[in-house]
Amino acid sequence: MARARRPFFCGNWKLNGSIAESLALATEVRNGVASLRDVDVAVAPSFTALHAVAKRLEDGPVTVAAQDCFWEDKGAFTGEVSAPQLLDAGCKQVILGHSERRQLLGELDAAVNLKARAALRAGLAPIICVGETLAERDAGETLGRIQAQLDGALADMTDAELARIVIAYEPVWAIGTGRNATPAQAEEVHRFIRTRVAARSAAQAGQLRILYGGSVKPDNIRALMAEENVDGGLVGGASLSADSFVRLVKEGSSV
Ligand code: 13P
């Protein structure tokens, strides 16, 4: 059966890699996935390596994502990087609202919304992360938490803007722990996200790509991708080696 949506895998390199290391990894990933046709692949290096990696990858097929952006385009905002600057550096996407930023840096849904709208304005595709903590899951609050994050992040977006976003469901308890959500747990939340977006626009919900993230590995991606509403992966640890990331993309895109 043909997939309803083109699979998308993004490697989130987090705070890792010199420029030279990032270039080497990006080059290996590009070479490894060059022959694949029915999949989109992105890598998200640190800010310092974005431009060099984007130049290296400019002939495709791998695109470059940033890991965050600010919500204003320019001005007196020391230390921030704007969406137009990321576009200028060669980025096509930007990861927003990652749980590490929410937990360690106090990022709120309202900020994620402002950043997503700035990214869209600049012509970048936001990859918006949502996910519950273990305490929230244990308390039966998973879907309520996801709903609040989703509604907050997508507030005031037009249907045309909704068509350009990607959502990543990343349960906090599964990130970097080696304990991935089961395919059924992922599917329950992915289906909920699609239904929630469908309440605003059925057409956009049907083509919205929803990635799963949290201890995705080459040997568990097939089972996750077999679920109807899992359209790809946002990959941390397993994206830091070209060998495992390329294997993961091949496995995941052949389901
Ligand atoms: P891991 O794949 O290392 O669990 O990280 C997931 C993640 O946070 C991707 O954004």
Beta percentage is 5-15%
- Rounded to an integer in angstroms, the radius of gyration calculated over CA atoms is 17 Å
Structural class by secondary-structure content:
alpha/beta
Tally of contiguous helical segments: 12
Could you give the count of β-strands? Answer: 8
Low-pLDDT segments, ≥5 res: none
Give the bound compounds. 1,3-dihydroxyacetonephosphate
Biggest sheet layout: 8 strands, parallel, barrel
Order of helices and strands: EHEHEHEHHEHHHEHHEHEH
Q: On the 0-100 scale, what is the average pLDDT?
A: 97
Q: In angstroms, what separates the terminal alpha carbons?
A: 10 Å
Q: How would you sum up the global shape?
A: globular
Q: Could you give the order of strands across the largest sheet?
A: 1-2-3-4-5-6-7-8
What fraction, in percent, of the residue positions are helical?
40-55%
Written description of the protein model:
This protein is of the alpha/beta class. Helices cover 45% and strands 15% of the residues. It is built from twelve helices and eight strands. It has an eight-stranded parallel barrel with strand order 1-2-3-4-5-6-7-8, surrounded by five helices. Helix 1 (19-33) packs across helix 2, helix 5 (109-122) packs across helix 7 and helix 7 (142-154) packs across helix 9. The longest helix is centred in the C-terminal third of the chain and has 16 residues, at 183-198. It is globular. 45% of the residues are buried. Bound molecules: 1,3-dihydroxyacetonephosphate. The site of 1,3-dihydroxyacetonephosphate has 14 residues, from strand 8.
